[in-house]
Amino acid sequence: MFILSDKYLKSFYKNYNTPEQENITELLLEFSNGKAIAVDALLPIVYDELKRLASNYLRRERSNHTLQPTALVHEAYIRMIDQTRVNWQNRAHFFGIAANVMRRILVDHARQRNAEKRGAEFQKFSLDENVDKAVELSSEMVALDDALKELAKVDPNNARLVELRYFGGLTFEETAEVMNVSVITAKRHWRVARAWLYGQINQTAQ
Amino acid sequence: MSPQNWDKIKEIFLDAIEIDAPDERADFLTKACAGDQELRGEVEKLIVQDKEAESLMNQPLIEESGIYDLASSIDDRDPLLGKIIGAYRLEKEIGRGGMGTVYIAERADGFFRQRVAVKLIKRGMDTDFILRRFRP
User: Fold this and answer.
1) Would you call A67 and B66 a contact, using CB atoms and an 8 Å cutoff?
2) Please, what's the largest Cα pairwise distance for chain A?
3) Cα–Cα distances in Å, from A113 out to A87, B70, B111, B134?
4) In chain A, which residues have their Cβ closer than 8 Å to the Cβ of B3?
5) In whole angstroms, what is the distance from residue B120 CA to residue B78 CA?
6) Cβ(B82)–Cβ(B89) under 8 Å?
7) Which element (helix H / strand E) includes B51?
8) Chain B residues near any Cβ of chain A (below 8 Å)
9) What is the pTM of this model?
10) Which one is predicted more confidently, B109 or A13?
11) Contact at 8 Å (CB) between B85 and B75?
């Protein structure tokens, strides 16, 4: 009996287009061509892949102290999409989806951690600076997510821009590409959004 | 705030922050807001916030203290936990080997309480030869 391990199969297929990759590419093309329903099929696939990549990435890069969403989003894109069949607009659409998924993964995680720490009244007795810092960061992320939901009511485009740039880790150039605006416009609107969000976060905190 | 007002606030704000000299900026605001005190108030609020907001969203998303936590929460979440198999819900992994994984499982059909160990055979190992060993 001879059984190939999953790991071997994956490295073997890495340089070939798998049927799964063909499917995902097809879905992305449909979505880009205005078939909105394709995004329902794409979201869970992108979600699983990004989560898996985040886990691998963090294991591999223990010495690197930051998790860069942009690295994950780009890697997911290269692994999931057949590059020969897509143009830059399709790429932009994929990044748009991935940024939204990153936001969900990170904010869900932060909310969960907040709830755990609150439940145990952890902060009061904590002597560990790192834990305090982690709690602080996850609270900030949750506050930002809440403020961003409010911004989406007033100015959905601006909220989307923040999602792409902050949660997706896209550059201004990439963000402008996804939003179909000039780089200068993207930069100006980022500044408006940032000022507004700052006010919203502090108003809620008081 | 109506969308029209918001567009106006944005527009004036973006022009105003390009002007550095306080006097000039005040003059510009007087002109641009044309006596609309509420509009001017909103724009001025945004200008103050803009100064303070420079550090917002400036950091990498997750710093050292956060990443191990995120990694472990992803690693630990076995997608099978909580799943119901037959009458039993998988509660916790208690062992793992070449053939598969063993879980503690709780009876979930409500008839009675019972804890059992459930062994799940790894995909690829579910040959007749191996499965036969688990049949009564």
Assistant:
1) yes
2) 67
3) 39, 9, 35, 41
4) 154-155
5) 13
6) yes
7) helix B37-52
8) 1, 3, 6, 10, 13-14, 17, 45-47, 49-50, 52-53, 56-57, 60-71, 73-75, 124-125, 127
9) 0.66
10) B109
11) no
Q: Which stretch of DSSP H or E encloses residue A98?
A: helix A88-119
Tokens of A69: 């969403």
Q: A198 vs B127: CB contact, 8 Å cut-off?
A: no
Q: Which amino acid appears at position B76 of this protein?
A: D
The 10s digit of each residue's pLDDT in A54-112 is 777 666 554 444 566 777 788 888 888 988 888 888 888 898 899 999 888 888 877 87
Size of interface A-B (CB pairs under 8 A): 105
What residues of B are in contact with residue A162 (Cβ under 8 Å)? 57
CB contact under 8 A, A67 and B13: no
Taking the CA of residue A141 and the nearest CA in chain B, the distance in Å comes to 9
Q: Which residues have CB under 8 Å from B129's CB, separation 6+?
A: none
Torsion of CA B66, B71, B74, B75, to 10 degrees: -150
Contacts of A109 in chain B (CB under 8 A): 69-70, 73
Radius of gyration, CA atoms only, chain A = 19
Give the SS3 label for residue A86: coil
Six token digits for residue A2: 């001879």
Of A112, A154, A194, nearest to B53 by CB-CB distance is A194
CB-nearest partner of A137 from B1, B46, B63: B63
| Per-residue confidence band for A13, with pLDDT thresholds at 50, 70 and 90 | very low
Q: Which residues contact B63 (CB under 8 A, 6 or more apart)?
A: A65, A66, A133, A137
Q: Please indicate if any CB of chain B lies within 8 Å of the CB of A54.
A: yes
Q: Predicted confidence band at A133 (pLDDT cuts at 50, 70, 90)?
A: low
Antiparallel, parallel or unpaired: β B88-96 and B100-107: antiparallel
A9 touches chain B (CB under 8 A): no
Asked if B111 and B99 count as a contact pair (C-beta separation under 8 A), the reply is: no
Q: How far apart are CA A34 and CA B97, in angstroms?
A: 47
